[in-house]
Design a protein that fits this description.
42% helix, Isopropylmalate Dehydrogenase, alpha/beta, 321 residues, single chain, globular, eleven-stranded mixed β-sheet
Length: 321
């Protein structure tokens, strides 16, 4: 039996509602995983009860939902629908408690809702994103993990994540390209792709045009692609060409150099279906591929499909015991 530990994200955003709705939908569809959800237990139970989802005290019981209280969500914070220090502290408390539950073996996989980086910083925690925070929580370096976006049409790994464009260009090294490529291939294998075909993009226009538009391809990217994984990795290739091949199904995955290289393509091709996965942690972490959506929470225009996709993907990626 698989137990999914869930942190809902910012209580002032859509996170709590999409968490409750996605769990209800997953159960209605016949999902057999159990859920251990962290946050304000009283408020979470009220949302789940409204959807007809009972809560139990034993997270090890098959196909059940259990709650773990670790933060209070005040009426004022929820109604604010904006970043706040209290909301930031609540997000970190739930994220850390859920991650610790997986690290301790109480749960198997981590599912995370959308967080506000601004709110977390207001709450007193240095924070550039859940990917980096979880790596540190697990005693890993930033370079030990890779941000992946896994969707039905596009599966992509990122060499750099939350850096300025200037800093990201300077951060591209052969070792980092190899790490992102290896992690994407491992995820593809876990998803059942027996012989993954992966293309690595360039950083510069037309993959540098032999050094005319930059030398990152020559210095770092091409050496990382040379002769690895029995020739199933090619590159560097212009990003627009790589994504066209991926969208047509002619390759299985794309390794990109920059955050927005990946996310623009992913959100165009796989909106509402892509899942943000952190690879390289001691456990699988799957997350929604969107933000806190304060405006949607305020207007109650909530779409839970992204969270439902994260739950399905996390369950599918969980290693069989």
């Amino acid at each position: 039996m698989t137990i999914l530990a869930v942190s809902p994200g910012d209580p002032a955003g859509v996170g709590p509602e999409i968490t409750a709705r996605a769990i209800a939908s997953h159960r209605e569809a016949g999902g057999r995983e159990s859920f251990l959800v962290f946050g304000d237990a009283e408020r979470l139970e009220a949302r789940l009860d409204r959807l007809g989802v009972p809560c139990v005290d034993d997270p090890s019981a098959p196909a059940t939902v259990s709650l773990r209280h670790c933060a209070r969500w005040s009426d004022a914070t929820i109604a604010l629908h904006a970043p706040s220090d209290e909301g930031g502290r609540a997000q970190v408390a739930a994220l850390d408690a859920a991650a610790d539950a997986v690290l301790s073996g109480e749960a198997d996989t981590l599912i995370t809702g959308p967080t506000s980086k601004e709110a977390v910083v207001l709450g007193g925690t240095a924070f550039t994103g859940q990917t980096e925070h979880l790596a540190a929580r697990c005693g890993l370096a930033r370079d030990d993990v890779t941000m992946l976006f896994l969707g039905p049409r596009l599966k992509v790994g990122l060499v750099t994540t939350h850096l300025s464009v200037r800093d990201a260009a300077e951060a591209i090294t052969e070792a980092r390209v190899r790490r992102a490529t290896r992690h994407l291939i491992e995820a593809l294998l876990r998803l059942g792709c027996d012989q993954p075909r992966v293309v690595v993009t360039g950083l510069n226009p037309h993959a540098g045009e032999g050094g005319l538009f930059g030398t990152e391809e020559i210095a770092a990217i091409a050496p990382a692609c040379d002769g690895v994984y029995e020739g199933r990795v090619t590159g560097p290739m212009g990003a627009e060409t790589a994504f066209r091949l991926a969208s047509d199904g002619r390759i299985d995955g794309v390794v990109t150099m920059l955050h927005d290289q990946a996310t623009i393509a992913s959100k165009l091709l796989d909106w509402r279906a892509a899942v943000n996965v952190t690879w390289g942690l001691p456990f699988v972490r799957a997350s929604v591929d969107h933000g806190v959506a304060y405006d949607a929470a305020a207007g109650e225009a909530v779409d839970f499909e992204g969270m439902a996709a994260a739950i399905r993907c996390g369950a599918r990626l969980t290693p069989s015991i």
